[in-house]
Structure formats: C-alpha cells, structure tokens
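ok so i was messing around last nite and threw this chain in just to see what happens. nothing serious, just curious
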Amino acid sequence: MVQTNTYAESKITDYELMIKQLDALSDGESDHIALLSNASALLNQSLTDINWVGFYIWRNNELVLGPFQGLPACIRIAYGKGVCGTAMKERQTQRVADVNQFPGHIACDAASQSEIVVPISLDDGLYGVLDIDSPNTDRFDKIDQTYLEKFVRVLEGHLNK
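result:
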C-alpha cells in the first residue's frame, strides 16, 4: 500500500518542502535514471489523489517511457500526440481537467480522468516530460501547475550537471 505524506496545512508549504527534498535527494547525483526514479517516488509519496506519476524521455523523435510509479503505461508516444506529445510540441505545461474532453487523448489507464504534463529541458533542448494522472476530474489547479513547474526546474538543474 502506498502511503501519501502531507506535512503542513498548506498545499504551497507542502510543495515547497517537496522541492527542497528533491534538491537534497539529488545533490551530487549525475545518473539520470536515478534522479528520475527518486523524483517519481517523491511525487508519488507526496501528492494525493493521483494514480500515475512518471517521466517520458525524448529519444529518436518520440517520447519513451522512463521511471514511473503506477500501473504499466504506454511505452512510446509520438510527437504531438496525446497530452504528453502535445506538451512536447507546444513546449508548455498541459493541465487537463477532463482527459475525455482532450482531442486525441491516449488512455493508458482507463481510471485516469485528469492529467498534468510539464515539459523538461536539457542543454537548451527538450529532454522529456513529467506526466501525472489522477482518477478525479479537475484534480490539478494553478497551484499544482506553478509548483510542479518549479519542481521540474530544480530537477533540470540536476539533470544538466
């Protein structure tokens, strides 16, 4: 059973603590798989009402499944396809309140009802995406987006070392 930990009364405070934990866990590490693995585990442990969290890495003009927490997932996603491919193409976060209303949504897990995808850059180029799914519609708000983007910026700093 997965235990979710929230540490404060404020969602913002919880995110700030999680970002500090990511920075501390990643300090001195250069292996990308290790960094992404710990990042996905930290997000899975810290966020409520999610059913999948992980990374897709940009390889040979497609997104390829990387470290994640949750049920088995789609292994490859084409550029511009689904929420992840759209985030890569548009180079901006995609926050989808109801995935059933997203044109071309790729349903890897039928339980997923909302999704947020944050692009990751490396050395001035696209590296991949952070993808988080929830079984609840409208799970992700502007606070989630702001702090998940900050989380990714800290992760990028470690990936770029």
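not much to say yet. The CA atoms of residues 23 and 154 lie 7 Å apart.
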